[in-house]
């Protein structure tokens, strides 16, 4: 009897220990499954979405520069640059506002004008990239050929130093006047050494020149203002600069931001094949890409 009792107790003890072992194993497995579940949850978490705000650039421009900027705005937005274009009707404020940091950059001027404005106003603005040339042209409401220009004719030219000199150089190229060779691109009326037709020169703010066409025999007008007035430089101008003009229109900024990622993205977009095609298709020779 004792032997049976002892055997039964031994068997019960074995069964109890086995049950405990199974529970321990199951709990351990359950613990591993939980841990694995937690790790899986961590590993399969979706990557964080880039929620960085786009960098905003405010750029001043005249027409047609503003239209080119608006054309590239969607592509820049995809690269994280939000472009705001502020249009101007003059050549003064775009530089003032870049210098005073109201604008990040501007796009409207050539290097001789930029150099003149820096020197006159104490600016330190810098070119970022050259984009296009706007061939400077001569227009008239009464003449169909430069040969019809009469003795004593009234000729309007821009009153700023660089564009005034540019107009005089173009007139010289047409054989209408002769300039002092030492004057170069900074030529003024005082540098005229020969004036066989006794032309009278009237200096006018560049933006107003199209409105002076009714008052003068000939006006030399910057292409952007000609386009604004509905003039087509390739068909309406009596004569015009050729593609070798040194007056490349520039993207301009400040020393403190010219190398920034956003400005460099803007420069790259302005000199893309898409912009080359846009300029050629839209302006048909009135603007000539330089890149």
TrEMBL record:
Residues 26-52 are annotated as: Disordered. GO terms for cellular component: membrane. Residues 1-29 form the signal peptide. Gene3D superfamilies: Periplasmic binding protein-like II (3.40.190.10). A lipid is attached at residue 20 (S-diacylglycerol cysteine). Its main location: membrane. NCBIfam families: MetQ/NlpA family lipoprotein. Belongs to the nlpA lipoprotein family. This is Lipoprotein. It comes from Paenibacillus antibioticophila. The lineage of its organism: Bacteria, Bacillati, Bacillota, Bacilli, Bacillales.
């Amino acid at each position: 009897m004792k032997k049976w009792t002892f055997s039964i107790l031994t068997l019960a003890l074995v069964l109890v220990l086995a049950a405990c072992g199974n529970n321990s194993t199951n709990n351990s497995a359950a613990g591993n499954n939980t841990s694995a579940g937690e790790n899986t949850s961590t590993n399969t978490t979706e990557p964080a979405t880039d929620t960085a705000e786009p960098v905003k650039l405010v750029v001043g421009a005249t027409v047609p520069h503003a239209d080119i900027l608006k054309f590239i705005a969607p592509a820049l937005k995809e690269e994280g640059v939000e472009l705001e274009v502020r249009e101007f009707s003059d050549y003064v404020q775009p530089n003032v506002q870049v210098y005073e940091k109201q604008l990040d950059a501007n796009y409207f001027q050539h290097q001789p004008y930029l150099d003149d404005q820096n020197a006159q106003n104490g600016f330190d603005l810098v070119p970022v990239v050259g984009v296009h040339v706007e061939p400077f042209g001569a227009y008239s409401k009464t003449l169909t050929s430069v040969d019809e220009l009469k003795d004593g004719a009234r000729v309007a030219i821009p009153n700023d130093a660089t564009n005034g000199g540019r107009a005089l150089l173009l007139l010289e190229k047409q054989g209408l006047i002769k300039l002092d060779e030492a004057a170069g691109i900074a030529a003024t009326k005082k540098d005229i050494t020969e004036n066989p037709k006794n032309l009278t020169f009237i200096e006018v703010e560049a933006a107003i020149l199209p409105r002076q066409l009714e008052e003068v025999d000939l006006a030399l007008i910057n292409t952007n203002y000609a386009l604004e007035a509905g003039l087509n430089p390739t068909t309406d101008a009596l004569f015009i600069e050729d593609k070798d003009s040194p007056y490349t229109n520039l993207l301009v900024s400040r020393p403190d931001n010219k190398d920034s990622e956003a400005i460099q993205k803007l420069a790259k977009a302005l000199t893309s094949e898409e912009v080359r095609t846009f300029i050629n298709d839209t302006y048909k020779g009135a603007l000539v890409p330089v890149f």
